[in-house]
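[scheduler] slot 2 assigned
[scheduler] job type: sequence-to-structure, two independent chains
[scheduler] chain ordering preserved from manifest
[runner] begin chain α
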Amino acid sequence: MNSAEQVTHAEHPSAEVVVEVDSCATEDAHAVFSALRTTFVSDRPADDVPEEVPGPGATVWTATVDVTDLRAEAEPRPLREPVIVNIQGGYWAVARLRQGLASAFAVRVLGTAAGDQEQEVQLRLETRR
């Protein structure tokens, strides 16, 4: 573990990241949230399985993830197709969440929007080969 990984929550009070997943199969959304729940504390309970909402428009599933403590490394998870994930939070928290996702998926940054204290990042997740 390097010194950047040993940083405490007190030094980075903005340890929560908002995660949005949309326009994908419910199984893929579940795989993403399950990997996050394995790695970090999430507001989505373990038995919470994303469901498609009938009607016009896209269904967006969200979670708030606290990346303060690394619980366990998630095993690689298969996806039916690539999943686009939008994450928003403090710089340290967003970077830590990306690292956590990388244990379960191949992660590619599609774009970023930077602010003074926070950033928003769009990721493309794929099955690790």
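[runner] end chain α
[runner] begin chain β
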Amino acid sequence: MKARAASAGFTLVELVITITITAIALVAIVYGWSITAQHSGDVTWQAKTAYIGQTYIEEILTKRFDENSSSDGLLPCSNNGVQEFNGSVMPPCTAADDFGRDGEARENYDDVDDYHGLNEVPLSLLNNLFTGNVNPYAKYRVSVAVTYDTTEIVTNQMVKRITVTVTPHSSSGASPVVFTAYKGNY
């Protein structure tokens, strides 16, 4: 008698196992792609947020320390009443309660504390770059707080802490990003 040759092909059990393993692998791959797709925009909003924060910090730091400081920066304001500095009488620094825009329009801000309380869409900084409704920063918000910082220097009113908070658009799911800089009275 002749022995039967092995049949070429798969059994039903082997086929079911192969389909199950392939399905599990495909589900894992698709899940990985979906996670990647969800976070693919993170780099974009992070770059925009960093750009906006840096732009505001740079603009604010170009302004003088206080309304009462000399515009040339040679005569700082006094932290505790009238003092002399290089033979000149120093005017008092602005009280923290008086921080804000001093009735000036945004384009006329001339000292750091004028920005205190600013809350806007960053279009005002970018008007020259974008026209119409094409502003890619329109869904972002920027708020600025300015305070005297006495944590490092015991002398009151010698350093102002500038805190710029950039809030990305809500669809990014991101938390506000805080940028901090310091301006000294010198």
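[runner] end chain β
[qc] chain β: Residues 42-184 form one domain.
[scheduler] slot 2 released
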